Amino acid sequence: LFASTSIASIGQSLSAEDEARLGIRLIDDKEYAEGIKHLRTARNLNLGEYEYPFEIGRTFLIWGKTKKAEQYFFPLMQHEKATPELFVLLADCYQTLKKPKNEKEALEIGLGKFPRSGIIHGKMGEVYASTGDGPMALAYWEKGIEMDPTFPDNYRHAAQFLATQHDHLWTWLYGQTYLNLTVANDQPDVNAMKFVRKSLAALLNMKQEKAKATGLDRTIYDAFTPCAIKSEDATTLVSMSTKLECVIDAWNEVSEAPRVPVIDQLAIVHSKDRLLDYMFWLFGETDRTEMNAWGAENSAQFNEFATWIFWNGIELDASSPFNRFKH
After folding, report:
1. What is the rounded average pLDDT of the residues 60-79?
2. What does pTM read for this prediction?
């Protein structure tokens, strides 16, 4: 009896922070009920804290108890420490509860509070995409790119939609930006690698000049087209790399070339004679046979390059974001 009383008294003496830490640990172990119990204790010890009820709501959502999650998230919308993630998770609740009006409203309130949030723009785009309104979805994703250039997901969403529109150029530009932001952080998205590689291959293997392109598109196509037309189709990463070298050489000849982050990065990589390493780094997972054959002889230099590119990633300027709106 004495021992159990001692343990109980120790348990009662935990600080709110310790209770929360214990709760999170239990939740990580999928002990949701016990974890929530400790988070509730933490909340009761510090009623003004934002994180404790937020984590309770998140846990209920993970647990599949969506209505409970919504009951914790909803009051937090007015909290001074509310985060963009709150509005996205609340929208997830309403999506599951089949309340589309509330879902959109939560995101609109979130954008009112966080107009530069990439994640909320991304979610709003997904909402419109789910109703079949692709152009409006794309508008939100591209606005998200403008507002939060280093948030990866909007590039992926925009690229995937543009792939369905057969816009190879912007599928590639957005898609390769997304891959640069995620592969460097060891988050290989093989499906994205495949459709981005396909769009790049289409650009490198054009059979004729793109007639109606204007502005920036025209400048980029002028660099691609001669390299694409003058030689056989490039299908492997090795042959695509050779054609891409031609494109970058042509781009480097453009007087006052506009700023294009993907191409600017390729120019730096090409100047170090590492374009082939880059191609396998970015697209190697799309063809394991080719990757393994090449990697068997080049693993040391590839690993060296992977370290270099991690510290020398694509440069995205928040004050001058790169998207179709700006060009």
Report:
1. 97
2. 0.91
Q: 145 and 139 in contact (C-beta within 8 Å)?
A: no
Integer Cα distance of 306 and 83 in angstroms: 34
pLDDT in tens, 79-107: 999 999 999 999 999 999 999 999 999 99
Q: What is the distance between the alpha carbons of residues 238 and 254, in angstroms, rounded to a whole number?
A: 25
- Which amino acid makes up residue 180? N
Looking at this protein, which amino acid is placed at residue 319? S
Q: Which residues contact 215 (CB under 8 A, 6 or more apart)?
A: 327
Neighbours of 305 (CB within 10 A): 19
Tell me which amino acid residue 164 is.
Answer: T
The CB-side HSE value for 32 (13 A sphere, CA atoms) comes to 11
Question: DSSP of 259-272, one letter per residue?
Answer: P-HHHHHHHHHHHT
Do the Cβ atoms of 155 and 177 come closer than 8 Å?
Answer: yes
**Rounded (10°) angle between helices 261-271 and 237-252:** 100
Q: pLDDT tens digit string along 35-62? A: 999 999 999 999 999 999 999 999 999 9
The C-alpha atoms of residue 260 and residue 262 are separated, in whole angstroms, by 6
Q: Output the CA torsion 199→277→254→204 (10° steps).
A: -30
Q: Which residue has the tokens 């590119």?
A: 309
Alpha carbon 183 to its chain centroid, in Å, reads: 10
Please give the DSSP secondary-structure letter assigned to residue 313. -
